[in-house]
């Protein structure tokens, strides 16, 4: 698909360009392996002298087609699919951070990412400093060290719905000579394109809106091609000095702008094997074909539901970045003028007990450990994901005991509101 096409056209037709007699629909290349005619042909692939498929742990035509659709949607030069959003974040960081390195990260991020960075990567010798994303440039810059390799943030944080000032983060990162990595899962490229605001690398949990039907776990790493690794060669030896596992090839010299993604594929994927299966990539592609239709409906429904809740006297508070009452309203309008996403959170005046009673009374909205799905779903972090914590510990973690995370689906908004209404009536 030519990158000139509009995003909705890329959603429907991007990635897969069938030639004469090819299947019109992206086929599932359910094959681990690919055939060659001579030993030399295969050998050249292993030396990275020729490009081609040889083993689906590294690359597969189905996953590649879907990755290239997402790259086009984000306006990047390429992408790789990973087995999950967690794997995407792991790859995005460890592709440029080694033991002894450090990176700076917004504290307003998804809990799974927080654990990956703060616990598991620390065990690998990669240190992180979590910062308040609303602090000034000067305060955030103090977190940087000579061994800092990246700055990381989420466009819209899960579940606190804080909107990141991407331009500010890009300015700070580039001042420090490191790339800005953005998790763009919640808005998707339909609502926000972080590369246009200076981000260098984008990661996604494709499990959420991109798949949209809660059928396949997946992730994606997209490169803008804008960060000049070679200009900071001393910071990024993995990209700018020879790789002994490929006879001393240097990624920036051999692959230019594709250095980052090539290293992630031929070194990290080869060694860690967290690739997305062709079957899951096929399902993800079906989701992507309607992403441009679903996102506006999620945003429209979420706004209607949050306005309804704000006007209801049993509701203590509502948090949705597209409501004028949100402290993030201005940033949301700047970065996501068409709307942010379908996730909102709120609390009931009766506190934790009422929140539980309310959720148990819902009929259309299902209690599931998921967000960003076509079906409306709901979760109570204090009873589920953060269940072991006391009210005081919850407060320290920024999770109110009464917080209900409500992921507004694409059903008729009147039915969603009627369901909330009948559940509130029981309290
Ligand atoms: C869900 C999520 C992840 C993790 O993705 P998985 O596909 O569940 O591994 C990462 N970042 C954000 C913002 C998420 O919502």
What does it look like?
- The protein has 427 residues and is an alpha/beta fold.
- The protein folds into 2 domains: 7-287, 3-Layer(aba) Sandwich (Aspartate Aminotransferase, domain 2); 293-424, Alpha-Beta Complex (Aspartate Aminotransferase, domain 1), CATH 3.90.1150.
- It is 38% helix and 13% strand.
- It has helices at residues 7-13, 39-46, 61-74, 85-94, 111-123, 137-141, 166-175, 188-191, 237-240, 251-255, 259-272, 278-288, 291-310, 329-335, 351-361, 391-396, 413-425; strands at residues 78-82, 102-106, 127-131, 148-154, 180-183, 201-205, 219-223, 315-319, 343-348, 366-367, 377-379, 404-407.
- A 7-stranded mixed beta sheet has the order 1-7-6-5-4-2-3, with helices on both faces. It has a 5-stranded mixed beta sheet with strand order 8-9-12-11-10.
- Helix 1 (7-13) runs antiparallel to helix 3 (61-74), helix 3 (61-74) runs parallel beside helix 12 (278-288) and helix 15 (351-361) packs across helix 17.
- The mean pLDDT is 95.
- The structure holds pyridoxal-5'-phosphate.
- Pyridoxal-5'-phosphate (PLP) binds at residues 84-86, 110, 112-113, 154, 158, 183, 185, 205, 207-208, 217, 219.
Short recap of the structure:
The chain is α/β, with parallel strands linked by helices. It is built from 17 helices and 12 strands. The strands form 2 sheets. A 7-stranded mixed beta sheet has the order 1-7-6-5-4-2-3, with helices on both faces.
How are the secondary structure elements laid out?
Elements: H1 7-13, H2 39-46, H3 61-74, E1 78-82, H4 85-94, E2 102-106, H5 111-123, E3 127-131, H6 137-141, E4 148-154, H7 166-175, E5 180-183, H8 188-191, E6 201-205, E7 219-223, H9 237-240, H10 251-255, H11 259-272, H12 278-288, H13 291-310, E8 315-319, H14 329-335, E9 343-348, H15 351-361, E10 366-367, E11 377-379, H16 391-396, E12 404-407, H17 413-425
Helix pairs in contact: 1-3, 3-12, 15-17
The structure holds pyridoxal-5'-phosphate.
């Amino acid at each position: 698909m030519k990158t000139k096409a509009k995003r909705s056209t890329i959603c429907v037709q991007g990635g897969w360009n069938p030639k004469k007699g090819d299947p019109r629909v992206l086929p599932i290349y359910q094959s681990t392996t690919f055939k060659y005619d001579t030993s030399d042909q295969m050998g050249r692939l292993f030396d990275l002298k020729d490009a081609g498929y040889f083993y689906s742990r590294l690359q597969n035509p189905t996953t590649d087609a879907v990755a290239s659709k997402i790259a086009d949607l984000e306006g990047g030069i390429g992408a790789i699919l990973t087995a999950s959003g967690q794997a995407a974040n792991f790859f995005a960081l460890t592709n440029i951070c080694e033991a002894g390195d450090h990176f700076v990260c917004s504290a307003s991020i998804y809990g799974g990412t927080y654990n990956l960075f703060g616990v598991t990567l620390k065990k690998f010798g990669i240190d992180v400093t979590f910062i308040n994303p609303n602090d000034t440039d000067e305060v955030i810059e103090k977190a940087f060290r000579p061994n800092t390799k990246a700055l990381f943030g989420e466009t819209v944080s899960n579940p606190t719905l804080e909107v990141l000032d991407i331009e500010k983060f890009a300015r700070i990162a580039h001042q420090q000579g490191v790339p800005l990595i953005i998790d763009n899962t919640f808005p998707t490229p339909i609502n926000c394109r972080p590369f246009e605001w200076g981000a260098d690398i984008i990661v996604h949990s494709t499990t959420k809106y991109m798949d949209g039907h809660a059928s396949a776990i997946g992730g994606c790493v997209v490169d803008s091609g804008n960060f000049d690794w070679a200009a900071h060669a001393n910071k990024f030896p993995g990209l700018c000095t020879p790789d002994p596992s490929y006879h001393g090839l240097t990624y920036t010299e051999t692959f230019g702008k594709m250095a980052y993604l090539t290293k992630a594929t031929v070194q990290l994927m080869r060694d860690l094997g967290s690739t997305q299966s062709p079957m899951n990539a096929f399902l993800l592609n079906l989701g992507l074909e309607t992403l441009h239709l679903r996102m506006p409906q999620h945003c429209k429904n979420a706004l209607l539901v949050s306005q309804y809740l704000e006007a209801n006297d049993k509701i203590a508070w509502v948090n949705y970045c597209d409501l004028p009452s949100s402290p993030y309203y201005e940033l949301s309008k700047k970065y996501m003028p068409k709307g942010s996403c379908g996730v909102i959170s709120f609390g009931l005046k009766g506190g934790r007990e009422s929140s539980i009673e309310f959720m148990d009374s819902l009929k259309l909205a299902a209690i599931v450990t998921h967000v960003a799905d076509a079906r409306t779903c709901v979760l109570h972090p204090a009873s589920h994901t953060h269940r072991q914590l006391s009210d005081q510990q919850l407060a320290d973690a920024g999770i109110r005991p009464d917080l209900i995370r409500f992921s507004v689906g694409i059903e008729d908004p009147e039915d969603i509101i009627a369901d909330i209404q009948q559940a509130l009536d029981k309290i």
